[in-house]
Design goal:
Thrombin, subunit H; 2 domains; 16 strands; 7-stranded antiparallel beta sheet; globular; 292 residues; mainly beta; 4 helices
Length: 292
């Protein structure tokens, strides 16, 4: 990214002693913005107040003139007004856009110098602190663009396509049901004794908690049987009996068990279960999966 700066800021950076501070602007995918600085006092920059946060420690930003991904980290303490443990577990900070820049905190009229822009990657948290990876914009160039040949279906279950955009095309509206929790085992496991659906009907589906401390939190379902739900990841807050939820069934992307038998939707199946896999391709003389 461009590292333009004013003449005054460049002259200040060249001094033996400087009064520079690094600033971060985090914008979550829901639009919530958090602005912090390493300066010992709050700074007003471009109409936004950058709060002083003790214990916020950046790592060096290493960049080069190539397509290599430029990563850095920021370590900080968790606080309700900036980053909380519950928000991290709920995934609210996943993929948040980050802008890192430098200012002279004693003379903000010198302007800013951008150091890095990117998205939040891996986040590790402890009891009171967190470490967040800041991935450069070139990280997106490493993503696979276009379709790949896989045995399972690549479509998002319930996605609606068009003439030129293929998709699952199962309408989840009529399939969405609601209920109330009747028993709780832990942050991942709860049950609704009124549910009568067959085992795994909601497996790989999505549950949304609609009341209580976890209201509006969504989580993917790992398994379902006899009214009991097991989630892939723990919820950020403890569940309570009586908390309400809405849930949509899931699809494990298999051709026979799911697309044909469960949903009768084979015309929209996007996988390639008949394409020979590596075992068939590499096998010799009928000995699949070996070159012996």
């Amino acid at each position: 990214m461009s590292k333009t700066r004013t003449v005054a800021l460049a002259a200040h950076q060249a001094l033996g002693t400087t009064t520079l501070a690094r600033c971060w602007r985090f914008e979550r995918r829901d639009g919530h913005v958090v602005t912090v600085t390493t300066c010992a006092r709050p700074l007003l920059i471009n109409g936004e107040v950058y709060s002083s946060k003790e214990g916020l420690n950046p790592t060096a930003v290493s960049q080069e003139a190539s397509a290599a991904v430029t990563n850095s980290e920021v370590n900080g303490t968790m606080a309700a007004e900036s980053v909380s443990e519950e928000e991290l577990f709920a995934g609210l900070w996943d993929g948040a856009f980050v802008t890192v820049f430098e200012v002279n905190y004693r003379d903000l009229t010198m302007g800013t110098m951008n150091l890095q822009s990117g998205n939040i990657g891996d986040v590790k948290s402890g009891r009171s602190a967190f470490t967040a990876e800041v991935r450069g914009l070139t990280q997106r160039l490493q993503k696979v663009v276009g379709r790949v040949y896989t045995a399972g279906c690549p479509w998002v279950f319930g996605s609606i396509g068009s003439t030129y955009v293929p998709a699952c095309n199962i309408d989840l509206g009529p399939l969405t049901v609601t209920g109330a929790i009747t028993s709780v085992a832990n942050l991942r496991t709860f049950a609704d004794s009124s549910r009568g659906e067959v085992s795994d009907y909601f497996g790989a589906g999505l549950v949304t908690i609609t009341s209580g401390d976890n209201a509006s939190v969504q989580m993917e379902i790992y398994s379902f049987a006899s009214g009991g739900f097991v989630l892939h990841l723990p919820l950020p807050y403890a569940l309570a009996i009586g908390d309400t939820y809405s849930v949509t069934p899931g699809c494990r992307k298999r051709f026979t068990e799911d697309c044909r038998t469960k949903w009768a939707n084979t015309n929209n199946f996007g996988g390639f279960p008949q394409v020979p896999g590596s075992d068939k391709v590499l096998g010799l003389g009928g000995t699949e999966g070996t070159n012996l």
